[in-house]
Amino acid sequence: MACTDLNNYFVSEANRLSSDTMYRNWATSPWDTEEIVPKTRWPDGMSASPNFLVFERSMPLSSAITFQTYGFNDGGEGDAGGSCSPPTATVYQASTRRTMSLKKAAVESEKICIEDGRMAWEIVQQGSHILRNLQNNSKYAWSVQRKTEFTSVCSNKAVADSSMTTSSSAFGTGTIGTINREMLDYWYDRLVADGAHQNNGLGTNEYGQPVLPLILSREAQATLVNNETTLNNIRWSNNANDRLLGPRGSFVNLEGFKHKIDIQAPRWNLVGGAWVNVPFYLPASAAGDDAEVNPDYYTAQYEDLFIASNQVVKFAIPGASLTAGPMKFKPQDYLGNFEWRNIQDNDCNKDGNIGYFRGILGYGAQPGIPEYGAVIRFRRCPLSWTVNQNCS
What we know:
Layout: E1 39-41, E2 51-56, E3 94-99, E4 102-108, E5 112-113, H1 114-118, H2 123-153, E6 157-159, E7 166-167, H3 181-194, E8 212-216, H4 218-225, H5 228-235, E9 253-254, E10 257-261, E11 267-271, E12 274-278, E13 302-307, E14 313-317, E15 323-324, E16 327-328, E17 339-341, E18 354-367, E19 374-379
Parallel strand pairs: 1-14, 6-19, 8-10
Antiparallel strand pairs: 2-3, 4-18, 5-18, 6-7, 8-13, 9-10, 11-12, 11-13, 13-19, 14-18, 15-16, 17-18
């Protein structure tokens, strides 16, 4: 068995770093929490692809429910007819069967040798930075997966074209424009009519109208606010006009939607008729690379926003322990929580002085009601400005 080459993971004391170290933080997102994609439990013993039944609305077969006018003792057949036997409409139950599959990933640190630690500067502090960075990688992975699975399960994948082309399977690739308030008005009416506002945790506004959650970038919000009608409504409002001069993302509630700003909103390019995702962070190309925001992210052509009901999908997490009669296995944490591993063997860790952090992530995307959400892909409006070269 070939052993992993050990890098001197800890910074040697020879480098004489200052004790006042800094940690470069990760960007945050509304998808970091379970608010939009709740957590539930994976059903053990239900095969690799458990089935879920959704009971749908259904209407009477053949004819609608109709009312007929009757008089007293109408029909002449006693209790067996007339007013005792009104026209009947039969309603049959409708249901949809959906499935999910288990997905897993593992994240771990480099192997760390305690002999390096003896000579390292502030080994405990450096170890805490290692663990924190792993935890943020796990957090970022969950955030990306929540967006990805919501988009996959959601049956309203729309593009901002003249027809608002919508599919349950893929996004269209026609002539796509930028987002505007009329498009959101369309989806607001459509989703509320379908019942998506019920049990979404937001209730109604002060006028008794339903509120829907909207996850979008600060840039997309500015595009919506700068719509002429919306801008005038805000400008002449008694209590909202000051937000026009407020910080980015000042509008929390606007025209039936509760806004949540995502500075990592999914962005895309359309290349050869195919959608190509532009990741927020650049992947590492070599060991020890810094995690940098992808410069192409700022120039990507298209972006997604979400009308993100918490009833579209859940993450089913496997239980921590699994036993099968006399067979007992070590409890596993599938939430990406990290533990220190130091496994002594006769090959790579003969003396038991080499260890590493390891965490396991696992979930199944359990479908709920896919019709209750919408993902709208639209063309971005790049920032532009005029450079004045005349100084006065």
